[in-house]
Amino acid sequence: MSQGNGVHTVHSDGAWINEVAGQQVGDRYETKDAAVAAGRDEAIARGTEHHIHGLDGQVHEKNSYGHDPRNIPG
User: Fold this and answer.
1) Considering its fold, how many domains does the chain have in total?
2) What is the pTM of this model?
3) Residues 6 or more apart from 58 whose CB is under 8 A from it?
4) Residue 29 lies in domain
5) pLDDT in tens, 31-60
6) Residue-level pLDDT at 69
7) Is 68 inside any structural domain?
């Protein structure tokens, strides 16, 4: 079941964190790779999308671990 708009891995106050609906979930991480791994696990557990942001705040990568419709053209 999908919850909210997914898990977001973002840089905040000198560390990398994961957020769901604007609230931090889990720990703070020194490296982006560690935060991404934890964010991926959280997204899989929730069956939702994982949005990976860069230092600029923009989404650089997005992965889906939910129930995606397969009738999308393209």
Assistant:
1) 1
2) 0.85
3) none
4) 7-56
5) 999 999 999 999 999 999 999 999 999 999
6) 67
7) no
